[in-house]
Amino acid sequence: MNRTTTPVRARWAESDPLLTEYYDHEWGMPVTDDAGIFERLSLEAFQSGLSWLVVLRKREAFRAAFAGFDPGRVAAFDGTDVERLMSDAGIIRNRRKILATIENARAVLRLHDAGESLSELVWSHQPDRSPAPRDDAEVPTTSPESHALAAELKRRGFAFVGATTVYALMSAIGIVDAHLVDSHRRGCSGLWRADGTRR
């Protein structure tokens, strides 16, 4: 008799099919290109104070509104673009977050002008060990590395990059493995072992 095992997921990933899809196929997988990291950093900032499900439902509208999160194109947005975005019902219309996204794109370009990349900066804060949570209560919301990265991003002119937002980014793009140790997705990035040590 065949037994089927129910996949173990974080509680938040079980509340809606869209979240389950995101958890099973994207969350925790490595992202190393500047545009991809800029997109996720921007979406994490827009999520601040809201549900991640709200952001996921609006993700394609965000991509259309923000020129595919191409930092070069977003950095050129002006006041007319801000008003366009403020009238776009497809996205989260928060002026401070919109302005921060544009300024963050400009900060990415300043990194490029200095011969650096957003990817190198973000990934340089990968810890030696990843958390190994056994249940949702043990999943961290910040880390020493996320505090350090948040401080460095702010120093470089980024906005809406608190330690919690940055840790969410680090979890989303595989810098840490915040999957539960019994999850079928634990170690999915290929970068971490189940016990939280680097491969």
Task: Report what the structure shows.
Zn(2+) binds at residue 179. The chain is 48% helix and 0% strand. With 199 residues, the protein is an all-alpha fold. It has a single domain (15-172), classed as Hypothetical protein, domain 2 (Endonuclease III, domain 1). Helix 2 (34-47) packs across helix 10 and helix 9 (144-155) crosses helix 10 (163-172). 34% of the residues are buried. The model has no long low-confidence stretch (mean pLDDT 95).
Characteristics:
about 200 residues, mainly alpha, Endonuclease III, domain 1, 10 helices, about 50% helix, about 0% strand, globular
Short description:
By secondary structure, the chain is mainly alpha-helical. The chain has ten helices and no strands.
CATH top level is: Mainly Alpha
Q: How many distinct helices? A: 10
* CATH architecture assignment: Orthogonal Bundle
- Look up the CATH topology: Endonuclease III, domain 1
What is the global morphology? globular
Please tell me how large the radius of gyration is.
17 Å
What structural class results from the helix and strand content? mainly alpha
**Helix content class:** 40-55%
CATH superfamily: Hypothetical protein, domain 2
Give the topology:
Blueprint: H1 17-25, H2 34-47, H3 52-57, H4 59-65, H5 71-75, H6 79-86, H7 95-113, H8 118-123, H9 144-155, H10 163-172
